[in-house]
Amino acid sequence: MDNQGRGQPGPRPENGTDTPLGPVGDPVPRPLPYEGVWRFTAPAVDASVPQARHAVRDLLHRQGVPVSEDLVQALLLIVSELVTNAVRHAALLSPTLAVEVAVGAEWVRVSVEDNHPYRPTALENPHSATGGRGLLLVREITREAGGVCDVEHTASGGKVIWAALPLKPAGAP
């Protein structure tokens, strides 16, 4: 995965410390070691669903993101549903999809982007239906975790579906 969220440290500040100063001389907080944005692409095929899930899990672990197992499971289910939807509904117009993971000090956001222009909505299908509840599930998981999710159009005419969840360190209430 390509870490597109971090730059290299700049030159040392003139004040002689490693802490840069803001416009009024206050210390500017440095990003936490696990903060950043990572993006990878995958073909819009069934095999990409478990690959995306494993990639996100490995990324969170490798970066040392302080995340509870419950939150990891929620994120992985969201990624699975969003990638599955892109594979099932967008592959014809979008043979490649992109998965992005963005981690801040207090939140983690996962998104899936494809080049299909259709903006899906969460459907409440009858209980007898065997599918069609993916976005509803994403919305409910996100809501229960105290997060937000949305669908946005991209500049290229496609869409990105994302969910941002509050980052609660393991063991936190």
Task: List the main descriptive attributes of the protein structure presented here.
single chain, 173 residues, alpha+beta, six-stranded antiparallel beta sheet, 6 strands, disordered N terminus
Polypeptide structure, described:
The chain is an alpha+beta fold. The protein is 28% helix and 23% strand. It has three helices and six strands; from the N terminus they run E-E-H-H-E-E-H-E-E. The chain has a six-stranded antiparallel sheet with strand order 1-2-3-4-6-5. Strand 3 and strand 4 form a beta hairpin. Helix 1 runs antiparallel to helix 2. The two termini are 31 Å apart. The N terminus is likely disordered.
| Mean pLDDT, all residues | 82
Percent of residues in helices comes to 25-40%
User: What is the rounded Rg?
Assistant: 18 Å
How much β-strand is present in the residues? Answer: 15-25%
Unreliable residue runs: 1-19
Shape field: globular
In short:
It is built from 3 helices and 6 strands; from the N terminus they run ββααββαββ.
Topology, pairings included?
Blueprint: E1 2-3, E2 36-43, H1 48-63, H2 69-90, E3 96-103, E4 107-114, H3 134-144, E5 148-153, E6 159-166
